[in-house]
Amino acid sequence: MRTALVALYGVLAPLLAALLLAAPPAAARTDAAADVPYATLTEVTGFGSNPSNLQMYLYVPESVTPNPAVLVAVHYCTGSGPAMYNGTEYASLADRHGFIVVYPSVTRSSKCFDVSSPQALRRGGGSDPVGIKSMVDWVLATYDADPKRVFATGISSGAMMTNVLLGVYPDVFAAGAAFAGVPFGCFATTDGSEWNSACANGTVTRTPQQWGDLVRGAYPGYTGPRPRMQLWHGTEDDVLRYPNFGEEIKQWTNVLGAGQTPVSTDTPATGWTRTRYGGTGDRAPVEAISLQGVGHNLYAYGTMGARVLTFFGIDGQGPGPQPQPSGCKVTATTSAWSTGLTASVTITNTGTTAINGWRLGFTLPAGQTITNGWGATYAPATGAVTATNAAYNATLAPNATVTIGYQAGHGGNSAAPGAFTLNGTACTTA
User: Fold this and answer.
1) Is the entire prediction scored with pTM above 0.90?
2) Are 77 and 218 in the same domain?
3) Are residues 69 and 209 both part of a single domain?
4) Is 320 among the domain residues?
């Protein structure tokens, strides 16, 4: 099984690079932070209680904001903190949005996180969750980070740990995003084994109440708010099989009191089905994305990081709904060569009020895949794309324009998109 994980995660697909933006005022650093260079992956030692001897790697962007958010990015089996740093776009997104990224790293031979022992599944019980919480505490104290904006995300073993962290420390984490994982407690063993074949094969099923009770039992007596959860899974996952996706949905909808019936269902990209529970919009209590025909390495099928940040609410858009323009116009042109193209997109606010924070929606012609972009963050790379403003061009005054662009590969159709929406409002095209 570990051989399969090595093959699947040996190389993560290249992801869109973030633009370099003007830096906001930097957060004050304590003496402990003085030894951590900005914009460099750095190992931190002596960060606190660490019963399983994890390593802590830290990325602090040069443009870190005052009271920054903290994102814990948890690696897959056979991986490491540096591999997660190099294989995902969270550091470049931190450059854009000013949050801090913690990359925990396993030192045991399997390089898998402990999501199975009784110690790991109980608050303060020991093992990996205790060490990860110590890393978070160190960052909160050292960088005066915001304790209400601490988040976790992970892939495979890291997704399982994301489930565990949200269950064991609901008072620490505000939300999580789990890619190809299993429910909290599904991998539990009592014989010291790290692997649970029944869970991995998707044969462990429980009622929503039973799954929810496992989470609540990790921190008995806790009555505070519970973290929101975003779940991702490929239908052809042959390592942690697809039925685990449905069991995760059962668990977290029960924990959050969201009900089993989706409030909304849509298709944000070709082959994706997104269901939201307990609310609509980008920050519903539970959001679940199923990727049709995709295997375990689903993170290679698009720039997921920007969507994670949107769910967390740390993408610069703020907690509320985006302003609706009273009018907008978009002009799009392409310049193509044999297998690629460059697109220029000019957005004009034709309304009478300023737009503070925008997202431009459009659908790429079939066969086109974005490989690079500027002036905005683009996600996903194919199909129905959302371009989200950069920090420096977030405000569009009446009659003001902003030009963004991207490079894309194509399979013969090099046309520009034909229709656009700005914050959900249809724009005229020219």
Assistant:
1) no
2) yes
3) yes
4) no
Q: Which listed residue (63, 92, 117, 156) is catalytic?
A: 156
| Nearest in space to 255 (alpha carbons), one of 281, 218, 216 | 216
Q: What is the pLDDT of residue 15?
A: 29
Sign of the CA dihedral with 209 first, then 214, 217, and 219 last: negative
The question of whether 156 is a catalytic residue gets the answer: yes
Residue 121's domain comprises: 2-312
Residue 233 in contact with residue 242, Cβ under 8 Å? Answer: yes
Helix extents (H) in 2-57: 2-9
- Same-domain check for residues 343 and 245: no
Pair 91, 42: CB distance under 8 Å: no
| Residue pair 183/211 in contact by the 8 Å Cβ criterion | yes
Report the distance separating Cα 389 and Cα 374, nearest Å.
10
- How far is it, in rounded angstroms, from Cα 77 to Cα 195? 11
CA distance 144 to 201: 43
- Average confidence (pLDDT) over 164-178: 97
d(CA 79, CA 19): 27
236 is written with which tokens? 């052809």
Tell me the three state secondary structure of residue 398. Answer: coil
From residue 166, alpha-carbon distances to 15, 55, 183, 252, 315 in Å are 27, 20, 11, 10, 21
Give me the helices (H) in 288-330, please: 304-312
Average pLDDT for residues 225-236, to the nearest whole number? Answer: 96
